[in-house]
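> run fold Peptidyl-prolyl cis-trans isomerase
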Amino acid sequence: MYTSMRCKRGHEEYVYSHVGQQGTIKVYGVMKSANRKRERPPPSASSSDPKKSDRRSPDSAKEKQHHHRHRHHHSKKSKMSSGNKVRASHILIKHQGSRRKASWKDPEGHVIMNTTRESAVSQLQALREDIVSGKAKFEDIAARYSDCSSAKRGGDLGPFGRGQMQKPFEETTFALKVGEISDIVDTDSGVHIILRTG
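> ok
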């Protein structure tokens, strides 16, 4: 004869078997109750005090402050470097006194060697008047008449800083306002008019 029964003690449930006529009772298994509460791990030191866990360490605060200063310094440096550069276009007319008496439109320099400074200045003044009056565009005049190789870009020299151009050219360009055209400027290359574009 075989029977079985369950008995619950506390949070544990015992399963018994009843074997034979003599009433022998044998325990053959123990089952934990499904309703037994799970033990929670003890709270850690970091989570026991939420105020302490939210505090930043001195090292992390210093690192953040250093990062902020580095970013501010980099931004300031970028602004300073961009403020030290200008952009301009120009028209150059060479003459007998130019240090290099040849250009893209006069490779042998025949015309340049027969052009006086006064003649070059007169030609450039007439071209400037046409630009200022609106009869012609600066880039079109530069492309046609300028002795500089920048003529193929409408006279555009791109951005440049101090010390990159001849001194009279540099000083005049930095003194101009954006969109303003200079008077005649003399350099060792010849005579110029300059349009500041940036």
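The domain at 84-196 is CATH 3.10.50.40 (Chitinase A; domain 3).
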